[in-house]
């Protein structure tokens, strides 16, 4: 079964819907971990890549009708795939993997914004974000208030308890 899946997967390349410069290159999870057919994996990749398309540089996201046509399936089929929990899990996992792999780049860009090497002027927000990530700055200030109240009651010793008991017992015998 595994060899059959690999043979089928070799027939399919990851979906390429847009120019690689116009979207964040996704890190793709292992297709064997999902209960999807190769053409459904390809559709999930196409949807994910389309959804991750940058809005700048003249790139636009494609309508699902166009994505379906490029995949050689009907739009209703693509909509049906998108409703599948396993399809959604594959897309979600792919996006999470891509986001995780982009963290070093994001930190590098923040540092460039902070030191002014990208725009020529330091970005205050970028500096704040770096300091927040490092744990040395927070916009919200936390205050701890502790109140120490003096002990209002005196300490009671075993001898005090014994005297109180003796007094109560004496009062009970006198009644």
Walk me through what this model shows.
The chain has 175 residues and is mainly α. 57% of the residues lie in helices and 0% in strands. It is built from eight helices and no strands. It has helices spanning 2-11, 38-51, 64-71, 75-83, 85-101, 103-115, 124-134, 158-174. The termini are far apart. Mean pLDDT is 76; it is low at 15-23.
Q: How would the global form be characterised?
A: elongated
Structural class: mainly alpha
Number of alpha- plus pi-helical segments:
8
Quaternary state of this entry equals single chain
Query: Percent helix among the residues?
Result: 55-70%
The helix/strand series, from N terminus to C terminus, equals HHHHHHHH
Largest sheet: none
Whole-number mean pLDDT: 76
Number of strands: 0
Residue fraction in strands? under 5%
Distance between the termini: 94 Å
Give the low-confidence spans: 15-23
Estimated radius of gyration: 33 Å
How would you summarize what this structure contains?
The protein is 57% helix and 0% strand.
Key features of this structure:
single chain; 175 residues; mainly alpha; 8 helices; 57% helix
List the SSEs and their pairings.
Layout: H1 2-11, H2 38-51, H3 64-71, H4 75-83, H5 85-101, H6 103-115, H7 124-134, H8 158-174
């Amino acid at each position: 079964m595994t060899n059959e899946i690999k043979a089928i997967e070799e027939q399919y390349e990851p979906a390429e819907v847009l120019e690689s410069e116009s979207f964040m290159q996704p890190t793709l999870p292992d297709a064997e971990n999902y209960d999807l057919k190769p053409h459904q994996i390809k559709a999930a990749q196409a949807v994910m890549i389309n959804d991750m398309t940058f809005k700048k540089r003249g790139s636009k996201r494609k309508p699902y009708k166009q994505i379906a046509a490029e995949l050689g399936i009907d739009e209703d089929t693509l909509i049906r795939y998108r409703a599948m929990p396993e399809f959604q899990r594959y897309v979600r996992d792919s996006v999470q993997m891509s986001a995780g792999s982009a963290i070093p780049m994001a930190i590098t860009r923040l540092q460039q914004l902070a030191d002014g090497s990208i725009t020529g002027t330091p970005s205050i927000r970028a500096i704040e974000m770096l300091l927040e990530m490092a744990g040395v700055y927070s916009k919200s200030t936390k205050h701890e208030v502790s109140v120490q109240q003096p002990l209002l009651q005196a300490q009671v010793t075993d001898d005090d308890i014994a005297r109180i008991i003796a007094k109560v017992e004496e009062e009970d015998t006198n009644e």
